[in-house]
């Protein structure tokens, strides 16, 4: 008698570094955010980074004890990354609206993006991200972002393949508030 009968075969998996989705190990593209495993992740040009953003290359190790982290700057905003664009956008205290419609502060021209997709408002702890009833919700740490969640400065959310990395003040990451996950 076959001992594997009735059991599902096990497959090796890996996590997408952009959106955190669980994928089969042999997949070369994440179908959640279209991350291409066969290419190096695009790095923004120094001119596209906010003033004071740390510059780092390739395999350098970032010293977290030095108080800097990718996306942690004195200016509040976000680094918007798509397959064709790397752009830093400042976010005022009133926040920004993200979506496909022309009335948004940040317009993402993709049919997958809802007309009114997401609202981002800076807080001392990070960027408050509120879902505006999007058909394809934004994803944070591999899960659908429904309702409102505070995304810490330096963390990234995915809006239909567009990566939004929150940037903000160093004070938000004082040693007393650092949390390991």
UniProtKB/TrEMBL annotation:
Q: Which InterPro entries match?
A: FHA_dom, SMAD_FHA_dom_sf
User: Has keyword Manganese?
Assistant: no
Instruction: Report the protein name in the record.
Output: FHA domain-containing protein
Q: Which organism is it from?
A: Candidatus Olsenella stercoravium
Does the keyword field hold Phosphoprotein? yes
Alphabetized, the UniProt keywords read: Phosphoprotein
Q: FHA domain: which residues?
A: 96-145
